[in-house]
Specification:
This protein is mainly α. The chain is 56% helix and 4% strand. The protein has 15 helices and 5 strands. The chain has helices at 2-9, 14-45, 49-58, 65-83, 93-105, 110-129, 156-162, 168-180, 184-188, 232-245, 265-278, 291-301, 307-314, 319-326, 333-346; strands at residues 195-197, 200-203, 206-207, 214-215, 226-229. Strands 1-2-5 form a 3-stranded antiparallel sheet. Strands 3-4 form a two-stranded antiparallel sheet. A hairpin with a 6-residue loop joins β3 and β4 (214-215). α8 runs antiparallel to α10 (232-245) and α13 packs across α14 (319-326). The chain starts with a helix and ends with a helix. 28% of the residues are buried.
Length: 347
């Protein structure tokens, strides 16, 4: 019976008949699929980045409230100002590279650059899966990362000029970061009660850039702290600032309009941009506020302080981070070691 059906349909074997029918089925199925893709590309390709990002964000239902606030901050302050009106179909590796360069020119910290890039990457990969791009727009793009050549460090003379180029608050930030190795947010939470000895400051918290509230230290559990060296000049600056401006429960830096709130990060960045635009002091090309912290590391390492101590004082998650950023500041370490070893062998 089966053989007769094959012969009547014009096929010599049943396999050929099945293959022919399968071909018709695939052809019918691919027509609406190609049409659906074309409609999808037309819709989302013409959509502006801001609208697409909002739609993408709505689908991120697994994010915690803190992660949502962080995402909103990255969108508001970095992604949307640069990309909001750009059509999705126009993204390619040059556009992504350009976005990274904008962040670099604006003095955005490398950690924030990396976070902003990661969010842009997630959004563009989502669009790539929809078929909007023929080629991956992230192909060949070098993500923001710590590069020793980009860790611009002011000289001692430059630091002396720059630290007094702003107001009293800027001076306090500059001394805390260059003298104690604090991060921006840690300096914003400076407290008189944390001077635990004449030459030791205990860093216990930071002002979270996203929430604007006091929070645990980066890479630390709640309640953890780290003790750092407190140079005499920095202690004098802290005490001078407290005598001149007062304190609230030991805290020196407060919100300029709402004193009960912590000092906001954007105020420091705004002042830094004003100092740079004024052009009245010698600021190295590529220097950012974070360079004060780089100065601390440089000052320690070039004076022979062990890198293990520097890593602990700076709060790095691992020693590898410290080596990756500051290894170039120890160019003579191998030669120095060889001399010491040679002396021991010859004695």
């Amino acid at each position: 019976m089966a053989g007769k059906q094959v012969q009547e349909s014009g096929f010599s074997t049943q396999d050929q008949a099945i293959q022919r029918l399968t071909g018709f089925y695939k052809a019918k199925k691919e027509v609406p699929r190609d049409q659906a893709k074309a409609e999808r590309v037309a819709k989302y390709g013409a959509m502006q980045f801001g609208e697409y990002a909002a739609e993408w964000k709505a689908g991120q239902r697994d994010l915690s409230p803190a992660s949502v606030r962080h995402l909103d901050s990255l969108l508001e302050h970095h992604l949307l100002p640069a990309l909001e009106n750009r059509r999705m179909s126009t993204f390619d590796h040059k556009v992504v590279d350009g976005f990274i360069r904008i962040m670099e020119r604006n003095g955005v910290g490398l950690a924030t650059q990396s976070n902003a890039f990661d969010r842009l990457k997630a959004i563009l990969l989502d669009a790539h899966r929809l078929g909007i791009f023929d080629e991956n727009p992230l192909e060949g793009v070098k993500p923001p990362q710590y590069d020793p050549k980009r860790a611009v460090i002011p000289s001692v003379a430059q630091l002396q000029e720059i630290r007094v180029a702003g107001d009293d608050t800027f001076l306090l930030f500059a001394d805390l970061m260059s003298g104690c190795g604090m991060r921006n947010g840690e300096a914003a939470a400076v407290n008189l009660n944390n001077i635990v000895a004449d030459d030791v400051y205990r860093i216990t918290e930071q002002v979270n850039q996203t929430t604007g509230e006091y929070a645990r230290l980066k890479h630390r559990k709640s309640g953890d702290y780290r003790d750092v060296p407190l140079p005499t000049r920095v202690r004098n600056t802290i005490e001078w600032y407290a005598d001149k401006h007062g304190n609230l429960d030991g805290y020196l830096l407060r919100h300029p309009r709402t004193p009960k709130r912590p000092y906001p990060s954007h105020c420091l960045q705004n002042q830094w941009q004003r100092i740079k635009r004024a052009g009245e002091v010698d600021i190295p090309e590529g220097m950012v506020v974070y360079s004060f912290r780089h100065f601390f590391a440089s000052n320690c390492l070039t004076h022979g302080i062990p890198v293990t101590d520097v890593a602990e004082w700076m709060g790095h998650q691992s020693l590898d981070v410290t080596f990756k950023i500051y290894r170039h500041l120890m160019p003579g370490s191998i030669s120095k070691a060889a001399t010491i070893l040679d002396f021991g062998l010859a004695s």
